[in-house]
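Hey, I was hoping to borrow your eyes for a little while. I've been staring at a protein lately and its backbone has me curious. You're getting the sequence in one-letter code plus the fold written as tokens. Would you mind checking whether the tokens look sensible for this chain? Here's the protein in full, and shout if anything looks odd to you:
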Amino acid sequence: MAVWSSLKYAVVASCALGLTQVSEALPVESSATSGVDEWISAPRSNLFRRQVNGFSGVQQGFGPQQGQVPVRKEIREMIRNTAEFNLFLLAYQRFQQQPQSVDTSYYGIAGIHGRPYKAWGNSFGGNPQSGYCTHSDILFLSWHRPYLAVYEQLIWEHARNIVNEFPENRRAQYQAVLPTLRIPYWDWAADARVPPQVGEMQQIQVDAPAGRQTIANPLYSYRFQDLREIPDRPFNAMPETYRFPLLRDGRYTSQPAALNNALVQVAGNLRNRVYELLTVYKEFNAVGTKAAAQSRPGRFDSLEGVHDTIHGTTGSGGHMGWVDVSAFDPIFWLHHTNIDRLFAIWQGINPGAYQISGRSTGTFAIRAGTTEDLNTPLPPFRQANGQFYTSASATNTKTFGYSYPETADWNRGAGTQSGPGAVIAAVNRLYGRGVPSASLREANNIAVRKRAIGQLKRSDAEPAEFLNTAPSPDSLAHVDDQVVDTGKYEEWTTDIRVNSAALNGTFNIHVFLGDFAASPAEWALEKTLVGTHVVLTPIDGGHDELVTGTVPLTSALLNKVVTGELKDLKPETVVPYLEKNLKCAVALAGGEAAVDLKEVRGLMVQVDATTVTLPKTEEELPVWGTPEVKLELINVPEGRARV
């Protein structure tokens, strides 16, 4: 990927990128979306005639070739660039220090997502007891794209101001990184651990205009200036955001070590889900939302679904575990930037497949039941001309002045590495190791070589450290002939469907292959844990609707083949094994209480098998057949449960 000099090809704007002010109400459009615009702009008061905000994202740092835009970096890569990370920290600190009463403060921007349930940019017309975020909704991915862009623009503006405050003899290094400064992402599918600069360091050293300083780390938590607009318990007693919190002697503390242990335990599950979503799901209506739909048989997962699992695991009783208050935690933005990246990667692999159809569950500005498509407005986010962004106008990341490492060439639209093939190769390099299809492809090649020279010994096969990570290709090579037949093997998946409001709040569905402890506090670290699916909701339980998710089983089953507990992955072998060993359990958000499965409204858990053809090269994807249900584990609506 080309790298250009930000000093040579970028000009730091002498004028602000500031939010455009529009003082008059927009005329009602005659398009199919005019009804939604009328609801959003409804003259229930004269608020809409006041100034509203428009923005375009950061439009600085572009390269010399058409379409070259700066890349959002993985947080660990940004940390390695000392000047860039330092400037980002300073800008983030200043952003968080803005008065909560200011709409463009950190509090004001985070509050768009959920609490405090008040109008931003004079956009209203839906449910006043909710935020603007579009969860359990086909607009989930497209709505968060302009949300991240306005957040990014405000951080950049603070960074620009800070650069100008440095003495001239110390300013150059920050001038050099400013034009291409973009918000980072946390790629938990490649490395689930939270970096210490985000999760452990409560204080951090920075090079400020006044010199070297130690400051409260703005990535570790956000400290509220006033909690009166956060009435919900226990968050009305939390002076700052917490992750995996521990309550002791009336005080909350985050537990970074416990959080990382829990994330590492489900890392293989996360990687398997992401790889499957990017390589198998071809319809946006399936990949884009966790809302159950009849139009996607055999496809129970979504980017929103795996997103929920990160929210719930990271929060575990803290802010990230609830829709209403999650955006106040700085890790929310690292996580959602990664979700936007996965969305962009999916678009790069599936050009032309970005089509939207659905019905809204309702937000602060969109009425429940509204028919949604590519032209549905995404309030409260307005373009510089005052019109609301839509999923159509938010299609390309470069519209907002950024790209990602895997999609930069696709966004440029030229060069030898452009197109879906390059994006597929990037996905295989990032996520292929540790997932069944890529590991089995490599294992097959190793087996052919070792068999030819008589070095293939069954005793050399070893399982992976974690049950939900596929064994190494070297280990799988020794059982290759038991699993792969004429380039094909069986993928096994646990499909989950449940009512989002089943427990009046966020809850976790754990899947085990074997026995597990009685205490739900121990489930996150169980050796028999295959994976966890989290149902993320608002504090009041949210929408009364069915949502779906998955826990892939194949990696765990391959480990059982390697250890000799299973002879192969054929249905006649696997189904009896799962009937005896596959178990489910449900716990509340913080793991504080187990829930009787019969009390989980709408819960259905089944297992399907799919014949998969292995890819032959790194630029190819595995080819999945049609899933077939092989086992029904739980069906609460029909009164059936094996567990």
